[in-house]
Amino acid sequence: MKLDNKVAVVTGGSSGIGKAAAVMLAKRGVRVALVARREDVLEEAVVEVSEFGSGVGYACDVSDEAQVCEMAQHVAGDLGAVDILINNAGFAIYGSVESLSASEIRAQMETNYFGAVHCTKAFLDQMLARRSGKIVNVASVAASFGLPGMAAYCASKFAMLGFSEALRGELHGTGVGVTVVSPIAVRTPFFEHESFANIPRYSPMSLSAEKVARAIVGAIGSSRGEVTVPGVARVAVWTRHTLPHLVDYFVSSAFRKTLRGSS
Ligand SMILES: NC(=O)c1ccc[n+]([C@@H]2O[C@H](COP(=O)([O-])OP(=O)(O)OC[C@H]3O[C@@H](n4cnc5c(N)ncnc54)[C@H](OP(=O)(O)O)[C@@H]3O)[C@@H](O)[C@H]2O)c1
């Protein structure tokens, strides 16, 4: 897909990976709608994006279907039909299932999974009508591993991965594509949530938001179902599916140790 003058919606566009993707798309001539809840942070991101191209902010909680419908109407009125949807808004609350409340678990699913569902439903019709469009869903390698301390987050990303795979199958031959981008840990404000206060935040392997943004922009033109970032993480995902007992043993023990050390 040629990007110049296309319209993209980036949820979670005010921070971290979403903001880096919005900047990168604006630099390529894409007119970008940035979506997030906190208006002050959103406004700052819009100013940053506007230095490189066209960016407009829309304050919206993606977990609220009515707000998403309203946002979609405003985007259509301001920018026209949407060519690219980047479902990126998301957050995590760290902690054992025993310690998290049901509403903390539900909130992660409402934003990370249903937020993507609401936005997909809000923009899919117009993409199908034009027989052209791309949906990029930002999941995580946590969509392939059940990590102690991250059960609710993993569940939301497993759900996003399954939804994306099925949707991609449904949309075959329609001109609308779906690709999931699954990064390992990324250095963003994601880990500023108080629940991460007692655990090591970044490993030396953690990525910059710009590296993931490049993968997101690459995914727009890709026919692949899932892109891991870095690409070599695909080996870990493949091994997890091929030798689940072995991988679960090592990964689960490492995360369990961190979880126990944090409480
Ligand atoms: N950082 C990592 O290590 C990592 C690794 C793999 C995958 N990811 C995924 O990458 C995505 C982006 O994360 P990030 O690291 O860039 O985190 P971030 O810097 O904390 O950015 C999250 C963005 O999502 C927005 N957001 C959160 N809840 C929202 C809601 N209900 N409605 C609308 N916007 C909402 C935030 O703005 P407001 O709070 O103002 O709404 C913010 O713009 C997430 O889906 C995350 O799961 C992150």
How would you describe this structure to a colleague?
The structure is a single chain. This protein is of the alpha/beta class. It has a single domain, classed as Rossmann fold (3-Layer(aba) Sandwich), CATH 3.40.50. It has 8 helices and 7 strands, in the order βαβαβαβαβαβαβαα. A 7-stranded parallel sheet has the order 3-2-1-4-5-6-7, with helices on both faces. It is globular. It binds NADP nicotinamide-adenine-dinucleotide phosphate. The site of NADP nicotinamide-adenine-dinucleotide phosphate has 30 residues, from α1, β2 and α4. NADP nicotinamide-adenine-dinucleotide phosphate (NAP) binds next to α1, β2 and α4.
Compact summary:
This protein is of the alpha/beta class and 263 residues long.
Q: What's the gyration radius in Å?
A: 18 Å
- What is the strand content? 5-15%
CATH superfamily: NAD(P)-binding Rossmann-like Domain
**SS element count, helices:** 8
Taken together, the total number of domains comes to: 1
Largest sheet: spatial strand order? 3-2-1-4-5-6-7
Bound molecules: NADP nicotinamide-adenine-dinucleotide phosphate
CATH-defined fold name: Rossmann fold
CATH class wording: Alpha Beta
Helix/sheet category: alpha/beta
Biggest β-sheet strands, sense, barrel? 7 strands, parallel
Order of helices and strands: EHEHEHEHEHEHEHH
Outline, from the CA principal axes? globular
Low-confidence stretches: none
